[in-house]
Write the structure tokens for this entry.
Amino acid sequence: MIYRAIIPAAGYGIRNLPVTKSIPKEMFPIGGRPTIEYIVEEAILAGITEILIILSRNKNEIMNYFDRSIELECFLTARGKEHLIPTITPPKVSIQYTRQHEALGLGHAVLMGKSFAGNEPFAVLLPDQVSLQRKSMLIPLIKTYDTYSTNVIGLQHVEPALLKNYGVVAAQRLKNRVFDIESIVEKPKKDPPSNLAIMGRYVLRPEVFEVLKDIAPGQGGEIQLTDALSELCSTSGMLGYAYKERWYDTSIEQDYLKIQKQAYLMKLHNKH
Ligand code: UTP
């Protein structure tokens, strides 16, 4: 049973400057709601009851968003607009926050959750990877963990020309969508080992913290989660679950436009 999740949201969002100088990319709106709200909902739908969001100094808007706003509730009540109150009510889940003082990399951000996770397996959800499914995309990863009791990461089939942007796995199919991962190549310039790329969903065993603690800075001088996962492939084992659903990366402008359109169409459809 996995009931804790870490959402790392402390990066600078360099690809989306200048807006990310003051607006965290996790707060970019999709269908009128911030991206991170979809991620929190996805976690809740999968049975997560405790969430840790990793923040940095300029990300207080995220904390404010998930807090109650009594004055706004009073204002809406006074104006006869109580029906809007549920839309501003915080989600029913425990959310804690911790600050990563320096953006030393995704691996380092996950390491900040060591005492939160304790000695239990936990989920990691990257808030810039979104899939507007009505079901939680974390569920198949948790089910795979429940069956095999080992680390599981989300995978997506990516067209060959784009593989150079991802962590790509060498893997053998175990069963249906489940793959046994032998190794991971980060952003392969040529000869990718497959067309299966790592997506931003993970269920990890606490051993990952021991590896992260000692990992040296890798690509871009950052402590990379992928480097720790690579090491785990040959020690505790690593499975992948290959999604067939479409994912969107809100850091990529084209993807962000597409997800906006999809959310708008879904909203329109729900109205009829
Ligand atoms: P990204 O690789 O997308 O980094 O991190 P980023 O800073 O958000 O964006 P770019 O690459 O500079 O444009 C994936 C996730 O990991 C978090 C980010 O906030 C994002 O949600 N992250 C990254 C951290 O929490 N801390 C870090 O040091 C790095």
Summary: The chain has a mean pLDDT of 95. Residues 4-271 form a domain with the Spore Coat Polysaccharide Biosynthesis Protein SpsA; Chain A fold (CATH 3.90.550.10). The CA atoms of residues 146 and 261 lie 36 Å apart.
